[in-house]
Amino acid sequence: MASAVAQSGCAAWSSAQVATRSSRKAAGAAAAQGCAPRPAAAAHRQQQRCAVRAAAAAAATANGAAATNGSSSNGGGESTTPSAAETARTVVDLVAHGTLCTVGEDGIPLGTYVTYVLDDAGQPILRLRADAVHTANLSRDSKCSLFVQPGEHPARLLARVTLIGAVEPVGPELAEQAAAAHNTLHAGGAGVDAPQPTDLYFRLAVDRCFYVGGLNGGSAADVIPGDAYRAAETDPLRTCAARLAAFMNAERVEDVLRISCQQLGAAFEDTAWAEMLWVDRLGVYMRAAPQDGGDAKEVRVPFVRPVEDEREARSALTMMAQVAWESQRPYQPQAVVPPSAPQDPANN
Q1: Where in the chain does DSSP place strands (E)?
Q2: Where is the composition biased (Low complexity) (predicted)?
Q3: pLDDT in tens, 195-242
């Protein structure tokens, strides 16, 4: 088992650093759609608009439910937000450092800064100095916890996570891989943070996860079993979500405003401002404030179907904005009276 883990090594770390995947299948379908006859393309666009409207209507109910219990679905039992376990995995993948809490000789918990890389199950492999106090504490009692929260906006709004379990030493092969990954991910460390040949690498075997949701959380914390945490997947948009939100807020201001108004059931002219907070494979979080000075409200806007990369997310947002625009400025076609048919001169 150790060798199998060693072979996969720090796969989760490396996957978080590469650019988001592009879907060849989606690209092929898009190209085929572009060559389709005009009536078929128009029918397809209309079908998409209807799907977006249906999703928006279902999400209006879901957003009300989310305010009560911290979760939402599309009315058909399918979730429109990532699960707590998925978000926990995403947060831990994004950050790569946290506060390690160990028990000192005096029995008092001690919180210290540590950096980590991840194994393929999302469990942190900690870099510990051989002479550090927390290393000595763990040698007496391997039980510990690791607090993780993104430090930058907007990722900081997602959640905060405490991984609870016990550390275990890793084999030489995995330790070598973890050291190489750590030196790349955390390059430039100085002083106590500079890599040393005597550094030790321990894996935190997660027993459970104490999860406090932000954007998709209610008023209560969740305890996620270790098996559920390890089985969950990170969100495929995690490395581009902040960039995409910044782009929408800077370059597509009106689109963000219209999508928010559509979801909240508010008039466009009655809304002072809106911003996109985060995007994931199932939808987006937005916040909007009314012109009358009332409190800003956060709203979840689901995608019609899950997306797998930034390109698909941009396409879904464009369709959302188009549907919102059509809803807020409905087009009323004027009836056209056809010209009279020419008369046959022979009948005159």
Answers
A1: 97-103, 109-118, 124-128, 143-148, 159-169, 200-213, 222-225, 271-280, 283-290, 297-302
A2: 330-348
A3: 888 999 999 999 999 999 998 766 679 999 999 999 999 999 999 999
